[in-house]
Structure formats: C-alpha cells, structure tokens
Amino acid sequence: MNTKTNTKINTKNKLLVGALGEEIACRFLISHKYDLLDRNFRQKCGEIDIIAEKMGVLHFLEVKTVSRERSRSFAGGTSGDVTHETSSLSGHRPEDNMHFRKLQRLERTIQIYLAKRRVPHETRFQIDGVTVYLHPECQKASVKLIENINL
C-alpha cells in the first residue's frame, strides 16, 4: 500500500525526522481504517512505535523514516542525497533497517505488551512495517505499508 501526503517537512534534526515520520504513519493508518491503541511502548528490550487494531487483528508497527535533501558536494558542486535515520549510502531503503535482531527485540517487546495489557491469548496479531519517505523540496511524503513481517 503506497500513498503520498502533504505536510510541512523540517529535516534538520534526526529525532524530529523520526517523530514526523511516526506522525505521518499514524495519519496514514487512520485514513486506512486502523484504530490507534498505543504509541512508543518502551521496555528494556525494545520499543514498539505504533500499536493499532484493524478488523480484530492487533498490528505492531515499526516505522522507518528517510529524508532526501539535495545538497552540494564539496568536490565539483554536484547534488547528492542526505539521508536521516540511516547511515548507509544513497539508495538505502528504510525497510533495510528492519533486520532480524531488531525484529527479535520487537517480538520480545510485543510479548511484554500482550502480558501487561492482559490481551487474550486467542487475539491475532502481526508485525508490520511502515516506511516514510520525506520529500522536503516539495513538502510531501510517500508512505508504504509492509504487512505481516515474519521472523
């Protein structure tokens, strides 16, 4: 599922970029009939960015945000991409940061959430990813939902 949204984009600070990405992801989910239950559930083993429900299924969502800004290179004055919330070269996809160890920590955090909230054992749940691409030059964002990520 892909969509674009208009929003005021400030990409100067990595934390702000992440928070903006989560806010855009929440708006996207609401527009697709998800009920938001919780945000930023933190435990020692990890954090769940968004917990939502749709059609009786709990969705534990990991949000990854990338901002692409045009910048001037020192050598030759060519344009390049500056990515936030990634440390890789241009062309890196934010979903590449949803690696096995991260998903294992997320799974442990989900088990704690289910126990603390006394969620019935028969409740169905899944892990989803939301990638947010910020486009500051046109003040837009692209959102992609990756459903049912398996360990």
Describe the structure in your own words.
- The chain has helices spanning 14-31, 100-116; strands at residues 2-6, 35-43, 46-54, 57-67, 69-72, 79-82, 124-135, 140-146.
- By secondary structure, it is of the alpha+beta class.
- A hairpin with a 4-residue loop joins β7 (124-135) and β8 (140-146).
- Residues 70-89 have low confidence and may be disordered.
Task: Please render the helix and strand layout as text.
Blueprint: E1 2-6, H1 14-31, E2 35-43, E3 46-54, E4 57-67, E5 69-72, E6 79-82, H2 100-116, E7 124-135, E8 140-146
Parallel strand pairs: 4-7
Antiparallel strand pairs: 1-8, 2-3, 3-4, 5-6, 7-8
Portion in beta strands:
35-45%
Q: What is the terminal separation in angstroms?
A: 21 Å
Count of DSSP H/I helices: 2
Name the quaternary structure. single chain
Largest sheet: 6 strands, mixed
What's the β-strand tally?
A: 8
